Amino acid sequence: MKRHTPLKPRGRRAEREAEALDRFRAEVLGRGKCERCGSKLNLDAHHVRSRARGGDHDPDNGMACCRRCHDAIHRHLTPDWKDWLI
């Protein structure tokens, strides 16, 4: 079975969005450690207010978190998950 390759959005708007996301990730990950547990391994850039809920790529809307904490936040596995999502 042939694998489907997802299409990349094209156009200037898509380019600006990709550039903004790259800047967001660079600045948030530049903080160097998980802002929840302090780990320095496997960091992700997390949007506190999700893009679907009107959040943007402003670094003030982001936090660096390790994959374990990032997963726990999105799966609501920690008692404080609401503190990390808007």
Write up this protein.
The protein contains 2 helices and 2 strands; from the N terminus they run H-E-E-H. It is an alpha+beta fold and 86 residues long. The chain has a domain at 33-86. A two-stranded antiparallel sheet has the order 1-2.
Itemize the secondary structure elements and their pairings.
Blueprint: H1 12-29, E1 43-47, E2 62-66, H2 67-74
Shape: globular
Largest sheet: 2 strands, antiparallel
Instruction: Enumerate the spans where pLDDT stays under 50 for 5 or more consecutive residues.
Output: none
Name the helicity range.
25-40%
In which order are the strands of the major sheet placed? 1-2
Radius of gyration equals 15 Å
Structural class: alpha+beta
Q: In total, how many beta strands? A: 2
Element string (H = helix, E = strand): HEEH
Summed over residues and divided by their number, the pLDDT gives a mean of 85
Span of the ends, CA to CA = 41 Å
Proportion of residues in extended strands: 5-15%
Number of helices: 2
What are the main properties of this structure?
86 residues, alpha+beta, two-stranded antiparallel ribbon, 2 helices, 12% strand, globular
Can you summarize this structure?
This protein has 86 residues and is an alpha+beta fold.
